[in-house]
Each structure stands twice: as C-alpha cells, then as structure tokens.
Amino acid sequence: MIYQVVKKKMNNNLKAIIFDLDGVVTDTAEYHYKSWELPLKEEGIDFTEKENEKLRGLSRRDSVKTIAQTKDVVFTEKKENEIMEKKNQYYQEIIEDLNKNDMIDGIYEILVELKNKNYKMAVASASRNAKQVIKSLDLDNFFEVIADGNSVNKSKPAPDLFLFTAKKMGFKPEECLVVEDSKAGVKGAKEAGMKVIGIGPKERIGEADYCYKKVSDIDTKKIF
Ligand code: BG6
Ligand code: MG
After folding, report:
1. Is-contact 125 18, C-beta < 8 A?
2. Whole-structure pTM over 0.85, yes or no?
C-alpha cells in the first residue's frame, strides 16, 4: 500500500505520453520484414525473420547498414539507395490496406483512458511513413504531435526524436513517459531523461522502468 502511494507520487508530474508506433500501436514488424525480403532476394540474399528483429526501431538507412553487417556483405551507397527505395515501395503498397483492425490489442483502450485523464499524447516514430499509418488506423485525433523519421537527423537510439517531441508539445523531459518496444527506443528515451514503459522480452526492453510482454498487460492504474 505504501509502495503504491510512493509510486503515485513518483508519477505526479507526468503530463505527456509519447508512443512509439511500430510494435506499440500497430504490429508492422512482419510488413517491414516482407518488404525487405523481396529486394534482398533480388541481390541473392536470404534474410530471415529472426534477423529482421535486429531492425526494430532503426531508421531505414540504419536498417540497410545493419543488414549488410549481419549478412557480411558490402553495399555501395547507390545500391543502399536502390534497396531502400524498393523496400519502401513494397511497404507503402502493404500499408495502403491498413485499417483499424491492425491496431495492437489493448492500445485503443489505453489511448481512450489517457485522453479521458487529460494526458497529452504524441507519437515519436523512426518511420517516415508514420503519418500515413496513423491516418489509416484513424487515430489522428489522439495525438498533439506526430514526430517521424523526417523530424530529426539523428535517429533512435539517439535521444533527439524524444527531445524534439517533448519540446514541440511544450513539456520538459521529466514530464514525459515513453512507450517503446525496441532496444534502440528504450535507450533513446532513457537518454532523453524520460520514464519508459517497455513492451516485449526482457532481453530487448529490460532497461525500461516498467516492462510488460504485451501492450494489453500494461497496468494503467499503477502507472497513470
Ligand atoms: C521503425 C521500425 O518504426 O521505423 C523499423 O521499427 C523501420 O523497423 C523504421 O525500419 C523506418 O521505417 P520507414 O517506414 O521509414 O522505412
Ligand atoms: Mg517500435
């Protein structure tokens, strides 16, 4: 009981919740994977779903560089650009069909609860397709700010995207809490001086302040 009171006090100055998009609001990891798989196959590279896990939270450019490292190949900058462009064409075709049914279980209820509690909300995603995805999910109305892969130069794990989002909302880092599913995202949010809810296995998000396997496991009564 006392513990609960202390926890409440710890989160007393919490004003804004910043959500990552892919893996928190919608489960696009498989779509990103499918979109990488095809152009890589054209290069004679077999890319597995397990290897794709390393790309969670990384920008498109950092992803293609990580793929080259993982598969021990060298891409010229021209080739990197070509692969990235094809990947994005496939990805955009897939997300054309996204709709409300593609939301992760439990996220909609959390957004409604937090909005009713008057928290300000934002998205901070490494994806340059974030605005399109949020529109397809019909969630625009929940977010004051949508920061995406175009917003800052240094992508996650740098803290820049989170700091940019907080500043744009008019809040200090310590007034913000981030919900993230990637190692890079948890690192960036902590470096920005924010509290973090991590979603996923401990080896991925274990550095977060609160760790849950799934979004629907988040104990909102305890945290907010
Ligand atoms: C992140 C995903 O949200 O966005 C990564 O977790 C992805 O897998 C990154 O590479 C960039 O996305 P996009 O849409 O700009 O290629
Ligand atoms: Mg993510």
Report:
1. no
2. yes
